[in-house]
Amino acid sequence: GIQVEQSPPDLILQEGANSTLRCNFSDSVNNLQWFHQNPWGQLINLFYIPSGTKQNGRLSATTVATERYSLLYISSSQTTDSGVYFCAVPVSSGSARQLTFGSGTQLTVLP
Amino acid sequence: DSGVTQTPKHLITATGQRVTLRCSPRSGDLSVYWYQQSLDQGLQFLIQYYNGEERAKGNILERFSAQQFPDLHSELNLSSLELGDSALYFCASSTRGEGEAFFGQGTRLTVV
User: Fold this and answer.
1) How far is A44 from chain B (nearest CA, A)?
2) What DSSP assignment string belongs to A47-99?
3) Which of A29, A43, B14, B58 could be a cystine partner for A89, CB 3.0 to 4.6 Å?
4) What chain A residue is nearest to B96 in terms of C-alpha separation?
């Protein structure tokens, strides 16, 4: 099946710093999602981004489907950005669309 | 709020017991997915239902089963529980099985 790799596995930043998280996938996909799992365990949708670039406040994401990677940019990081960031791609078979997740990037933003 | 509702939020039970986790998808979503998140396995797909029918199975144990009812809510049944079944169980929904998936807050199961 498709492999999803995220890097770095861990990232520690000072508040106000910028960061880039990477997601590589082993096969062509028709969509990709980024999630933030907060310290309470909740999975929050960040981006649904099959290709191109999207921005939402201090966060933006770019997916280059032809080269099989996606990047998540966090600017002016805040302590509330701490948590685990996952990317996920669908494994399609007929009407099945389950997601395969990467192992995540654990982000810690220090005050 | 994703619009996906899971109950209960927390569950503590003993080995050998059976529990039922419940999920209400977002209004209008026909597809429901169950995922398990454990420390050593990460987020793993268990099973998908679409409009009441099973559509895909992942790494779901035979002790686990699920169903989707006519009102589109879904239940995940876990039986003969073992310590290793302790995990966060998520439900997600999407429209027609395609497009963006939205996750509930999860049920944290602890087997003691």
Assistant:
1) 7
2) EE-SSEEEEETTEEEEEEGGGTEEEEEE-S--GGG-EEEEEEEEEEETTEEEE
3) A29
4) A95
